Amino acid sequence: MPAITTSIFELLKIGPGPSSSHTIGPMRAGFDFVERIHELPDAERMRATILEIRLFGSLSATGSGHGTPRAIMAGLLGFQPDTCQPNILEQFNDGELPFDINLKGKTIRFHPCDIIFDAVQHDYPHSNTMIFRLRDGDEVLLERMYFSVGGGFLRWQGWEEPQSGAPAYPYETMAQIKTHLRANSMRLHDLLLANEQAITGMDEDQINKGLDRIIEVMEQAVECGIVTEGVLPGTIGLQRKAPVMYRRAKAEYFQGTGFLKAVNAYALAASEENAAGHCVVTAPTCGGAGVLPAVVYTLKRHMSASQDEIRQGLLVAACIGFLAKHNASISGAEVGCQGEVGVASAMAAAALAYARGYRFQVTENAAEIAMEHHLGLTCDPVGGYVQIPCIERNAMGAVKALNAYLIASTLEESYQKVDFDKVIQAMAQTGRDMSGKYKETSLAGLAMSMTEC
Q1: Residue 182: enclosing H or E segment and its boundaries?
Q2: Does the pLDDT of residue 453 top 50, yes or no?
Q3: Residue 290 and residue 284: Cα distance in Å, rounded?
């Protein structure tokens, strides 16, 4: 495989929850398809009468509970994930109310029922497949097949890797990173900064401003979540837990178990904001978007970490996410929740260790320990909502990240026998072997048990 050329800001994206593969990816697809329509010759575009969208795989199985139709409608109307209002999805409904789409001089009436939930089992290249068609009656004027591959990343039939700068220090594995660090006597965050500059053409100041924006959105998600009471959207009727947990932590002055309650509260808070469809940061996905913000908030509020230390931690967290995505997957529809909350926990553990001043080996060990103890985790959302078990899973992921950091930073580095490359190989193999029922379909596991109760 070629070297990793993903930008930090491709992995850590801002957008509406509750699922990056089900909201951010589909919103981008809706926006892109309208842009493609605008490029049609006037004579063809003016003939259009119907816009039809078909959802396959987990998008069909759990798209309704994940807000996929609303995300697509937002995209069709010109909204994009990183610039839309934090509560954009609340402005749309999944009902029968039609609306008009302006196709560059041609207005077409779009009905939500034109989003069709198609086959869950299919032979397309990726589970999360969408087919957009613009028609004049039965005649197809424009068609595009999109794949929402996890973490808000969008691909399409015929997609090719866009041209970008070559990384200054090319790598595909953690072992190759270690070779660069030793050969050049450099720190990991410096390597990642150099690569980001080479790949994107951004300078260090621009990168830092981008990282500060990511930190700001993470903090906003936590701060909104710890004060917002009530019931989350959907038929489950799930009560928000973060405010109660935060009040208990505060009453204990964040000492002893109060500190752990605070970490839990922060993860619950960001994850509940995600479940409400509000804007979060994919870290690496919306499904795991409570873990890293909880650690970032803990570093800043309880460990007196500086902004620069947190930036460095985010760079390292992104590196862990890159390796997982490149060598396995971060999509629950492909490998289960081990690729979402599991990778999020590994990212957070690495960020915590690095921001606390530990060098490379402790950082890698922390990431490996966190990932190892999420292997085999299935994705079985009850009712298709990113709520049960997803929200509490984020809290568990944050606490596991903290504990992985404690183990890695307390014990001798040489005690660790499994390296990060090996645990990612294990995750990929486990994902391949995992039954498709446990990959974001709500057809097995806890989702089915709750249905039977």
Answers
A1: helix 174-184
A2: no
A3: 10
* Each residue's pLDDT tens digit, 316-343: 999 999 999 999 999 999 999 999 999 9
Percentage of the chain exceeding pLDDT 70: 98
Task: Please give the backbone phi and psi of residue 392, each rounded to the nearest 5 degrees, phi first.
Answer: -65, -30
Q: Where in the chain are the domains?
A: 12-156, 174-452
Cα–Cα distance, 159 to 136 (Å, whole number): 26
Residues with Cβ within 8 Å of residue 106, at least 6 apart in sequence:
45, 46, 48
Q: Which residues contact 25 (CB under 8 A, 6 or more apart)?
A: 128, 146, 148, 149, 152, 153, 154
pLDDT at 191 exceeding the cut of 70: yes
Tokens representing 175? 């072992």
d(CA 318, CA 419): 18
% pLDDT > 90, the chain: 85
- What average pLDDT does the segment 378-395 reach? 95
Nearest CA among 52, 1, 59 for reference residue 26: 59
Single-letter amino acid, residue 322: F
Sign of CA dihedral 339, 308, 225, 232: negative
Q: Which long-range contacts (CB under 8 A, 24 or more apart) does 444-447 make?
A: 444/378, 444/380, 445/378, 445/380, 446/380, 446/382, 446/388, 446/389, 447/380, 447/381, 447/382, 447/383, 447/384
Q: Which tokens sit at 271?
A: 């994850």
Give the domain 12-156 fold: 60s Ribosomal Protein L30; Chain: A; (3.30.1330)
For the chain, the C-alpha Rg in angstroms (whole number) is: 22
Which range has the worst mean pLDDT, 72-76, 222-226, 292-296? 72-76
| DSSP annotation string for 68-95 | HHHHHHHHHTT--TTTS-TTGGGG--SS
Tens of pLDDT along 66-82?
Answer: 889 999 999 999 999 98
